[in-house]
Amino acid sequence: MKKILYTFGVLIALVLLVGAGYAYYLYDSVQETVDSDMYVELERDRDKDEAEEEESKLEMDNREPLSFLLLGVDAEEAAQGLADTIMVVTVNPEDDSMKMVSLPRDLRLTIPGRDNPDKINHSYGYGGPDLIMDTVENYLDIPLDYFVTVNMNGFEEIIDALGGVSVDNSFAFEQNEFFFEEGEHELNGEEALAYARMRKEDPEGDIGRNSRQRQIVNSMIEEGAQLSSLSNAQGLLDALGNNVLTNLDFEKMRKLQQNYASARHDQETLELEVDNERIDGLWYILVEEEERERISEELKYHLDISDTKVANLEDDEENE
Q1: NCBIfam families given for it (predicted)?
Q2: Contact 280, 117 (CB under 8 A)
């Protein structure tokens, strides 16, 4: 079984929310790394006219809600392979909050331009970031503003560059030849990956694993927020430049830091209820339409595009 990346929250913390903050510490180096090594222009961005690009800038300046697609891939380079981990993140700066939902890599759905239903992670292999963004947008019925992709090597390398992470383990277990006693631990990159991957010994299964992932994410957010005192600043830059691709350029990251960083203090993970089924000899994850609509509506509400929320806001304005 292929390894699963647990780097999405890492990227939110370092790239989307706090990473640009350390531009004031190594401004020129950060700008060069982001714009030369990490930034990639998507077809959808390339097709925008000047008015649309200006509207995009105004959204950040006006602190409007934004959405991100965060991807972990199973290849040596972030531009290749299948998307083994897929997470949608919405950020609402008005109430300083973030919502995250993971989409299983074996989720069965329709990929734009393909005749038959397929696994969602194949969309990245078929058409890269543009196609998987289109696929997720169609499935959840929400717009996606930006994507961030990291490869398998990035998880350990980024954590090591940060100097490790702190976790509080609720029960003792062994994973990948590491033994984690109950209590607080300081973990390096390899240990953190093992800690995040464990599922079989957890009585809560995936729910328990998700909890450990969030511990690591939160620890990395706190470490990333202290980047001005980071002793291995260039090492972190190298790790990000070698392992991350995004359509966020340096200027947009800087605006995210200025206008959205406080949202990291209020994070909520939405759980998607799923079923398993073998179809034509392959295992798929299936989601009932009612469940898909529930998650879609929660994300729309957080992005201020829900019909219900828009109607409530209009009523409030009329009553003022």
Answers
A1: lytR_cpsA_psr (TIGR00350)
A2: no
Q: In angstroms, what CA-CA distances link 241 with 173, 209, 225?
A: 34, 28, 19
CA angle in degrees (0–180, nearest 5) for 77-207-142? 60
Query: Is residue 311 in some structural domain?
Result: no
Query: Of the candidates 155, 140, 139, 29, which has an alpha carbon nearest to the alpha carbon of residue 84?
Result: 155
pLDDT confidence of residue 216: 77
For 185, the 3-state DSSP assignment is strand
Q: Can you tell me the distance from the alpha carbon of 261 to that of 320, in angstroms, rounded to the nearest whole number? A: 31
Rounded to 5°, angle at Cα 87 from 46 and 145: 30
Residues of the chain with pLDDT under 50: 1-23, 78, 228-229
Determine the pLDDT at residue 17: 40
Q: What is the pLDDT of residue 202?
A: 78
pLDDT of residue 102: 85
- What is the rounded distance in angstroms from the CA atom of residue 198 to the CA atom of residue 240? 25
* 8 A C-beta contact, residue 296 and residue 140: yes
Containing domain of residue 255, as a range?
8-288
Name the residue among 175, 149, 24 with its Cα closest to residue 75.
149
Distance, CA of 14 to CA of 244 (rounded, Å): 11
Residue 90 lies in a domain: yes
Token pair 């995936």 is found at 206
Entry pTM: 0.78
Cα–Cα distance list, 271 to 3, 96, 193, 207 (Å)? 21, 21, 22, 9
74: in domain: yes
| CATH number of the domain that residue 41 is part of | 3.40.630.190
Distance of alpha carbon 135 from alpha carbon 36, whole angstroms? 28
